[in-house]
Each structure stands twice: as C-alpha cells, then as structure tokens.
C-alpha cells in the first residue's frame, strides 16, 4: 500500500485511484463472513508522511462505506483533540459493524 509523501504532491487523486483499484482486486473474491470479516483501517500520519497520506482516514471511510467493509478505528491514530466518540456515532449511521482498535497514542 502506498504510504505517503513528505512533500505536497500535485496529483493527489491518481495514487488513491490505484489504491482503490488494488483494494477492489483484493476483495474481488467473496469470503464466507461466518469465518472472516473484511475491515479497512486508515494509515497514521507520521514522520515521512505528514504532508499527504494516500490511505487517509477519509479515503478508507469512503471506501469502507461504499464497499460494505467494516471500518477499523484505531484510537491511537487520531489527534489528541479529536474525539473517537464522534467518529463512532457518525459511522454507526452507515455501517452495521465497526472495529474498534483500542490503543493509546505516543503523545
């Protein structure tokens, strides 16, 4: 998966189109949900990727909602001023399931 860019790229959509196509190919074969649950999780902004992250929270939230995939929210991936409860209550309107990864940030 593409990680991100240290600089501000001119083209921000083409890497996301490639990621979308790759994920569609990965999830092309339906797997019995009794045994396996498909979820997607955004990448964390960090050193070397703070200017632009291809697999951002917004990308994976949109992808998960439109492809009926579980969205994983890692509590340690968000800024300390963000409230994960806001994200949970918003996603609950559109998804039957949410995967919560409980961790603490290194801040």
Verbal overview:
With 107 residues, the protein is of the alpha/beta class. 31% of the residues lie in helices and 15% in strands. The protein has 3 helices and 5 strands, in the order E-H-E-E-H-E-H-E. The strands form 2 sheets. It has a 3-stranded parallel β-sheet. A two-stranded antiparallel ribbon has the order 1-3. The chain is globular and about 45 Å long. The chain starts with a strand and ends in a 6-residue tail after the last strand. The model has no long low-confidence stretch (mean pLDDT 86).
Which characteristics define this entry?
107 residues; alpha/beta; 3-stranded parallel β-sheet; two-stranded antiparallel sheet; globular
Short note summarizing the structure:
With 107 residues, this protein is of the alpha/beta class. The protein contains three helices and five strands; from the N terminus they run E-H-E-E-H-E-H-E. The strands form two sheets. It has a three-stranded parallel sheet. Strands 1-3 form a two-stranded antiparallel sheet.
Physical arrangement of strands within the biggest beta sheet: 2-4-5
> How many domains make up the 3D coordinates?
1
Oligomer: single chain
Percentage of residues in strands: 5-15%
Whole-number radius of gyration? Answer: 14 Å
Query: What gap, in angstroms, lies between the N and C termini?
Result: 26 Å
Helix proportion range: 25-40%
Class computed from helices, strands and strand pairing: alpha/beta
Number of strands: 5
Mean pLDDT: 86
- Please provide the ordered H/E string of secondary-structure elements: EHEEHEHE
**Biggest sheet details:** 3 strands, parallel
Any low-confidence stretches, pLDDT <50, length ≥5?
none
Shape: globular
User: Number of helix segments?
Assistant: 3
């Amino acid at each position: 998966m593409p990680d991100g860019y240290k600089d501000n790229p001119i083209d921000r959509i083409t890497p996301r189109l490639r990621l979308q196509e790759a994920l569609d190919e990965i999830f092309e074969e339906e797997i019995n949900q009794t045994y396996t649950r498909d979820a997607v999780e955004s990448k964390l902004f960090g050193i070397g990727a703070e200017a632009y992250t291809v697999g951002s929270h917004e990308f994976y939230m949109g992808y998960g909602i439109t492809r009926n995939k579980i969205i994983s929210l890692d509590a340690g991936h968000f800024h300390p001023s963000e409230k994960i409860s806001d994200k949970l209550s918003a996603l609950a309107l559109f998804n039957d399931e949410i995967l919560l990864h409980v961790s603490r940030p290194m801040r």
